[in-house]
Amino acid sequence: MSSQVEAQSIEALKDFRTALALYGEDTLSALGAAEAEVRRTVLWLQQDRPYYWQEQIKRRRERVASAKADLFRLRLQKSPEHHPSMAEPKERLRLAEASLQDAEKRLILVRKWQPALQQAILEYHGGVQRLKDLAASDVPGAVALLGRLVDALEAYLRVEVPRGTAAEPVGGAGRSPAHFDAIAETILDQAAPVAEADDGPETHEDA
Predict the structure, then answer these.
(1) Is the CB of residue 5 less than 8 Å from the CB of residue 188?
(2) pTM for this structure?
(3) Interior CA angle at 189 toward 185 and 191, to 5°?
(4) What pLDDT tens digit does each residue of the chain (207 aa) get?
């Protein structure tokens, strides 16, 4: 694949550089928001919910104990002459015991979902790591490269073309596509050693 660039419009390069920079910022912002939501979910599942349901279990056990005590007192009051109704206290006890069982089940579910959440977070981080590296490193590098390319082209346009030079005006008086291509290729060639140097440590680690 050729590394030449047919630069027909410097303004188009500027617009693309701006759009690329905004893409990198928006991507990092979205990833940061997602990471904050992950942290909130972890705190909610590992700290907030366990504490809440442990407190609920404690309170609901007290309600069960109170309902049992009320029912026991009514049974003590029972005599041949006095027959207090047991229906209402029995219903209160049934509801209190059902509420306690519900809280205990919810605490079990919370503890069950904790390792599942951690596994999901690991998979999420692995899935977005490449995108994060792209937005944090590759995109700024590309934006900087486009900046150097635009600066070089604008500097070239400020150079006066010698009289008598035959060239079709493109992007500036007396400039031809070949001139722009040569400048773009020079900038890309200057950036190539940097990319190769970055690949060096990875090759060494793979060996």
Answers:
(1) yes
(2) 0.61
(3) 120
(4) 444 445 567 888 899 999 999 999 999 999 999 999 999 999 999 999 999 999 999 999 999 999 999 999 888 887 777 777 888 999 999 999 999 999 999 999 999 999 999 999 999 999 999 999 999 999 999 999 989 888 888 887 777 555 555 444 444 444 555 555 666 666 666 655 544 445 544 444 443
- Residue bearing tokens 């979902």: 113
State the amino acid at position 197 in one-letter form. A
User: What does the buried/exposed string (b/e) look like for 35-74 if buried means 16 or more CB atoms within 10 Å of the residue's CB?
Assistant: eeeeeeeeeebbeebeeebeebbeebbebbeebeeebeee
Question: What's the helix, strand, coil split of the chain in %, to 5?
Answer: 80, 0, 20
Cα–Cα distance measured from residue 196 to residue 203, given in angstroms and rounded to the nearest whole number: 10
Crossing angle of helices 10-43/139-157, nearest 10°?
160
Nearest C-alpha neighbor of 46 from the set 101, 121, 96, 100: 121
2, 31, 46, 129, 195 from 141: Cα distances, Å: 20, 19, 39, 17, 10
